[in-house]
């Protein structure tokens, strides 16, 4: 379906700009059906085996790899406990715990008396057990958390009975039907989440008292809404001994967060490790990472400095130390070696367009880069952190896969595989990346220009702006051809200039850069996009009278915003899956960036695109 809609996007651009001829080229012109063939190949089934030897399958042996996968024993359903004795299983909205199969020398044996316990107390209704909550925001991607000792199951319980139901028309069949879903919209009543702990040995459940914090020690938290049943329970972590649970609790306004500790046996609140407040918002997205063999020390990630960095907390000393610092951000914590000498992580330390891998000494805080080449690296370490598999790409290389060995601060490597150029045989456009200033006149913004294939001297070409410009997304990277999507190349092969700029509000540039959009979505992003238009229209081969714009999701919203607020610039737009009225979007995402319609009515009115339809002068295709 998305492919059909992409054809529609190009179709409306072509119909408006009357660009009907394909330039003559020396290579084959990319057709729509060939878009998938331009994806870069890589090694398959990569893993370190039990002896620490790297195993992998080359792409040319992919058929054999699939056969190997089909012959593997089928795993049991559900999520296993740490000791493998139990499995947590979701069935619809329900949750139960079942006894794992017994094994004798690796051969599965059927239990004569299957053992299973129902954790949920309802089989129907609007209460969801053991699944992701809060609309998958705050890094949440599941609702089951086994304790390290394997005999306690923490789980989310989400009560949606108070949330307004929303109808979705199912039109796949000849006679359409209605599917009702719970969808909490900004400013409306939200669902209520609690965290339970089920013990399969006793078949008893204890619920953490997250809404019953004592006034004597939690007055500030209560004042800021952390006893409100609609507040957020995020990034659940067990203490290794299984006696305590840690929760990053966030108020509904999302400007007050506390890392609280609860007694896993009684569910009672125990203590608060720290509190973080921000005038705009706080967004916890990562659980704690306890050091190997330690019950007291863990690493957590925090944006309090303005950039996401690593911190080491010592429960025995009740103290925290910052491990990384600077005007760059950690994008992921990979792990800590078994001897607890260093933490390994991915970061933008050397460039916001790159993702390199580093280690930081836990004592000296010395940071050492482990990946040599510029670009974007995806790695996998062995259990001792003495070797890692590195698959990387940059603007010049489709993909190179290496095995790297670490000795001290030195890294040696052996190339295992070099991917062929997926554009071999195709005519490809020229791609350039540059920097311009944002509308504030200070901040650097990265932009990308894709030129039409085989340009003719003196000819002016229509241009398409492809954008997202919202949180958690970065379009311009030092990936192959600067992160260029195949669709951009497809448009370039049909005589279009394609332009993209990552304005303020997009990711990997720090908190201040992102929070520019707060309570006023579209406004500053739009000004930055127009700074990009200044760059675009300064190019001698661009026809400033034929500029279109295209985006999906937040990019769809921005497309509608730009066509309505800058109608003289954009003659045609295609917005896919746009939010045209933020008061009808979900609470968690919407209220983080916009507040509620009750406390920010002017902001909601400014970016309600439905009410601004009369400003449209060009053509606009809305896809949903």
Would you mind describing this structure in some detail?
The protein contains nine helices and 38 strands. The protein is an alpha+beta fold and about 625 residues long. The chain starts with a helix and ends with a strand. The radius of gyration is 27 Å and the shape is globular. The strands form ten sheets. The protein has a seven-stranded mixed β-sheet with strand order 32-33-35-34-36-37-38, with helices on both faces. Strands 9, 10, 11, 14 and 15 form a five-stranded antiparallel β-sheet that branches. A four-stranded antiparallel β-sheet has the order 3-4-5-8, with no helix packed on it. The longest helix has 16 residues, at about 1-15. β21 and β22 form a beta hairpin.
Note the main attributes of this structure.
624 residues, alpha+beta, seven-stranded mixed sheet, 38 strands, 14% helix, globular
Based on helices, strands and strand pairing, what is the structural class?
alpha+beta
Query: Main β-sheet: number of strands, strand sense, barrel status?
Result: 7 strands, mixed
Shape category: globular
Average predicted local confidence, pLDDT: 92
Cα Rg: 27 Å
Distance between the termini: 11 Å
Number of helices: 9
Quaternary structure state of the chains depicted: single chain
Beta-strand percentage? 25-35%
Helix content: 10-25%
How many beta strands in the DSSP annotation? 38
The order of strands across the largest sheet is 32-33-35-34-36-37-38
Uncertain ranges: 65-75, 102-108
